[in-house]
Amino acid sequence: MKSGMMIAPVIANLGPLEALCFRPNPSEVEEVFTLTLEHLCQAQNRGYTHFRTGDRFGYTLPVFHGPRYRVWGLTAVALDQALALIVPPEEVPQHRSVSTEAAC
């Protein structure tokens, strides 16, 4: 699905996360969490979310499953595209399809 929105993921080595102080906007971010690159590249942690528009299929987006949360929507799209740029294709497993559907 194309929205016309431009997104620029930024990849950086910030050093040990314990030394950082995150202060996200509480009206936009409920909690900050991390997932390792290794976790994101494991086949069992990657999939698709199928969305429908009204009573029919609309579009499919990637989803990443974490131990506590799942990363989906625009964040998952940006993450999927960033991983495609930094991880060699042979090291990124194919997404597996999941039957999750969300109405829009």
TrEMBL record:
A molecular function (GO) term: coenzyme A diphosphatase activity
InterPro entries: CoAse, NUDIX_hydrolase-like_dom_sf
Alphabetized UniProt keyword annotations: Hydrolase, Magnesium, Manganese, Metal-binding
UniProt entry tagged with the keyword Metal-binding: yes
Coiled coil regions, renumbered to chain: none
Keyword Magnesium (UniProt): yes
Cofactor: Mn(2+); Mg(2+)
Gene3D superfamilies: Nucleoside Triphosphate Pyrophosphohydrolase
Protein name in UniProt: Uncharacterized protein
Organism of this sequence: Culter alburnus (Topmouth culter)
Lineage of the species this protein comes from: Eukaryota, Metazoa, Chordata, Craniata, Vertebrata
